[in-house]
Amino acid sequence: MDSLRAFWWYCQLMKYRMTLLSGGLSMLFCLSALGQSESSSGEVVLDGSELNRQLQDRREKISQLAPEERAALETARASALRDPAVREARKKRDEALRDYELVLIKSMVKGDPTVRPILEKSKG
């Protein structure tokens, strides 16, 4: 009889755990969707805000490191920036960003020609 009661409690515990787990996963799924914005057509818009948030989080975590750890990271980063592969990747990234900006501006002007003077004013 005791083993039957123990089995019953075990089943109840497993049901409780599964309920909590499925609820937690559902909440996690819903919260992950909040980090993405959608256009009026329903497609996901990648506006760079997620990347900016990740970079800010990384900066905050680095600022909380011990001074010796921050110094070690800075030394390793300085060394990595001298690596030809890293320099080439950075050059490609900068070119891709320039290309993106040009395409974005052309598309903005194509969609609304009245923004051209505003863009001219904002040129740096």
Strand content: under 5%
What is the CA-based Rg, rounded? 26 Å
What is the H/E order?
HEEHHHH
Report the biggest beta sheet as strand number plus sense, adding barrel if it closes. Answer: 2 strands, antiparallel
**Average pLDDT:** 77
Question: What would you call the quaternary organization?
Answer: single chain
The helical percent reads over 70%
* Tally of strands: 2
Structural class: mainly alpha
Segments where pLDDT lies below 50 for 5+ residues?
A: 36-40
What distance separates the N and C termini?
A: 82 Å
Coarse morphology:
flat
Secondary structure tally, helices: 5
Strand order of the largest sheet: 1-2
Could you characterize what this model shows?
With 124 residues, the chain is mainly α. Helices cover 79% and strands 3% of the residues. The protein has a two-stranded antiparallel ribbon with strand order 1-2. The longest helix is centred in the first third of the chain and has 33 residues, at 2-34. It is flat and about 80 Å long. It starts with a helix and ends with a helix.
Task: Summarize, please.
The protein is mainly alpha-helical and 124 residues long.
Which properties best describe this structure?
single chain, 124 residues, mainly alpha, two-stranded antiparallel ribbon, 5 helices, 79% helix, 3% strand, flat
Summarize the SSE layout with pairings.
Elements: H1 2-34, E1 37-38, E2 44-45, H2 49-63, H3 67-81, H4 84-111, H5 116-122
Antiparallel strand pairs: 1-2
